[in-house]
Design a protein that fits this description.
It contains ten helices and 17 strands. With 446 residues, it is of the alpha+beta class. The protein has two domains: 5-195, GAF domain (Beta-Lactamase, 2-Layer Sandwich), CATH 3.30.450.40; 205-430, Phosphatase 2c, domain 1, CATH 3.60.40.10.
Amino acid sequence: MAHNPWLQQGRGQARDGVAARPPQRALDRYQLRHLLDGVVAVSVNLDTRTVLQRIVEAATDLLGARYGALGVLSESGQVTDLITVGIDDPQLCAALGLPQGHGLLHTMLDDREPLRVAEVDEDPRSAGFPSGHPVMRTLMGVPLMVRGTLYGDLYVADKMDGTPFDDDDEGLLTALASAAGVSLENARLYERLKRAAEHFQRRMLPVIPDLAPLEAAARYEPASELLRLGGDWYDAMVLPDGATCVVVGDVTGHDVEAAPLMGQIRSMLRAVALDRCGPPGLVVSRLDHALMMFEDPPTATLVFGRIERGRGEGEGYTFGWSNAGHPPPLLVGADGSTRYLAPARHGIPVGIDASVPRFSHEHPFPPGNTLLLFTDGLVERRDQDIDTGLSDLAEQAARLARAPLEDLCDALISRSPKVFDDDVAVLALRTPPGRLDTVTDTPPAC
């Protein structure tokens, strides 16, 4: 946000040897520029809480006020939230509580008109300040409207230069409040659309069935930005030959169209896997050929795997998989050891070229071990290399090697920041205690 050094220092002061107050002829242009700065500041974000904070900051900067506040109203007219500038002590803000809806502010909301008071303590409508509240001498406020509905009140107090608020100030605050109402409506529409898109994405993800004797858990966390939401998925099912089929994937590109594409690819992969109980590379190759039916084939990265039990009584499990351009699975031993299953030969994303061979790989899946399949949103950050994210994930998973799978998934999701750059899908599976037998490698299938 652009700040106004002239207003911050006071109109009667000088800055760097130059008169602080600009010539009167330039004042309108000066105020207009800072009004536009304020409008831009409240319009660049689509998170409602951030927009509210920006509005108050823009108002105090624009008018050179010491204090600013925005009260948010419920449908019944009660103040449900208060965003402030100038009162920096959070304990004081908590102690003061929310305004009670009477006095000067109550008058402004009832009239739905701008309010300007030169001496607060002398105004007969004033109800005074609660104990501990900073004493404010002058006050100006405007109602904040969103699509014709009273949303709250925006007010500022005590200009830095000690002068009362004037007509120009009222015009600036009214103009800012009008622009703020548009920004708030945009933020509400954005959040409503984001919730709908997230709900649609979640409805398309399966409920993990009972895979006993294997344990399983899964999590999905949407991206924080709407345009990056959608396209990650997980799936698991028992195949006709008794093997457990698992997959985690990520549709290329993230927008409101990604979720339907994810649904198409997931359904096609399920159909191919159920029809052809073959090596993972063969299944992924058949998916490639199926995607070629589209005029513009959707593309995705994925890991498709089969968990198979040994043929003899008491024998262990084997994890067979094919990787199509996706982050490698992580195998976590019961003793806390970790290993990324990342053979040299891996494939390109599906939907690009069906003639490229697919490879099948196998690795023992020992008793009590945990297998983690995940999408890149769990390990990628805009400000760090993916290898750092992979290393951090392995370290945390090692510490939770014996934790219940539900707790493990929760912990892995919570290790990420509150703002997710990308969707996150996690599928965790664990083998029961038992005997492990040696498993041989399988040649590539295409």
